[in-house]
Amino acid sequence: EIIKKFCDEGYAKQLLPSNECGMKMHYKRYGGQGYTALQEYWIPIMKEAYGVSQKDINTMFVENPQVALSYSE
Questions:
Q1: pLDDT, tens digit, for every residue of 21-64?
Q2: Cα 5 to chain center, whole Å?
Q3: Could you write out the DSSP letters of every residue in 21-41?
Q4: 20 to 30 Å CA-CA from 5: which of 11, 29, 32, 48?
């Protein structure tokens, strides 16, 4: 819900959602959601249950990581 609220208020360009998969219990093999939890679980929920637009999804998961991980001197 909070991500939808931030997107509606124009903050999508400042969001960079991530997930944690640093413990054995997070791995799919041990019943966790694994490294693909955002793509397989959370993004569909954001779109279907909360109505986050595809434009905001692209901003948060494609454009923002490109900016955050770019390097310039």
A1: 788 888 888 888 888 888 889 999 999 999 999 999 999 999 99
A2: 14
A3: --SGGGSGGGTS--TTHIIII
A4: 32
